[in-house]
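Hey, I'm writing a tutorial for new members on how sequence and structure tokens pair up, and I'd like a real worked example in the thread rather than a made-up one. If someone can provide the structure for the chain below, I'll link this post from the tutorial.
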Amino acid sequence: MLNILFSSENIDFVQVSEELIPDYLVMVNDMEHVERFIGEVHEPFTPDQELRWVQKKRAEKAVVFSMIQRENGDFIGNIELMDVSDAQGELGIAITAEKQDRGYGTEAIRRLLEYGFQDLGLKRITLRAYPFNTRAIHVYEKCGFRTYDRTEKHVCMEYIR
């Protein structure tokens, strides 16, 4: 049973869970739609690797949540505030292919910004996107992020409160 920590209009945010490992594997091993945007090319992740990831995140009390569609309980993806310190953190988000292009990214980011600023007391949230991921960059801009640096490898963006 997944414990809802907070919600937005269409999304319930829950703690990462062993129960969702099959969904995580579908998402992170989807090279075409997800994996190429979140990391280096690698061999497909295994159930044991995902279990270790879940256990590590929970042990660290990481600010990472799985997103569940309120309407039907479907897995949407994961969203995280990484390296939280000195009133700032770095946003990371991954949405499973079948839930992309439905507005969940925008909704989730806006809700996590609210959580970060109001509940965690952050003043700045940053993120890095690949320059070729124009769809994500558009979403980040729509949510209020602004570019502060651009390299060959990354577009660095921030939202300051």
